Amino acid sequence: MSIEDDIEFFERVPTLALLGREALRILAIGAESRYLEDGDVLCHQGDPVDSQSVFTATARQASTVIRIPRGLFVKMLEGYPEAAARLRDSLLALTEQTARDMRSMRGRLGGNPDKADAD
């Protein structure tokens, strides 16, 4: 895939699309692509992946995966503060909506939604 193909792919991911084309260009330049055949193992359980341990991930069909290194993503956010603000605002709205949904569900299940707000 070319850099332009990667940018176009990133633009189809709603969360990444918030960043804007120039920020996505930075990510596309530094992203790492890997082709996997059906049954190939991407990583094994317990392997460190960006300071996290994972469960085994195996391709269920031929696929190309794109990894954006954490350090690159942070540097991009530092270089494009307006993109960082859009991403922050989107994640905040999603988090707030999730919290409202959980309180609503707790109320429907007979819990006390007011007590959850006090915690």
Structure description:
The longest helix has 28 residues, at 81-108. The strands form three sheets. The protein has a two-stranded antiparallel sheet with strand order 1-6. The chain has two domains: 1-31 and 68-108, no CATH class; 34-66, no CATH class. Strand 3 and strand 4 form a beta hairpin. Helices cover 56% and strands 16% of the residues. It is an alpha+beta fold and 119 residues long. It contains six helices and six strands; from the N terminus they run H-H-H-E-E-E-E-E-E-H-H-H.
Number of domains: 2
What's the rounded overall pLDDT mean? 89
Strand segment tally = 6
The shape, in one word, is extended
| Order of neighbouring strands in the sheet with most strands | 1-6
Largest sheet: 2 strands, antiparallel
For the structure shown, list the relevant keywords.
16% strand; 2 domains; single chain; extended; 119 residues; two-stranded antiparallel sheet; alpha+beta; two-stranded antiparallel ribbon
Q: Helices and strands in order, then pairings?
A:
Elements lengths: L2 H9 L2 H4 L3 H10 L1 E5 L4 E3 L4 E2 L2 E2 L3 E2 L4 E5 L2 H10 L1 H28 L4 H6 L1
Antiparallel strand pairs: 1-6, 2-5, 3-4
Give a quick summary of the entry:
With 119 residues, the chain is α+β, with helices and mostly antiparallel strands. Helix content is 56%, strand content 16%. The longest helix has 28 residues, at 81-108.
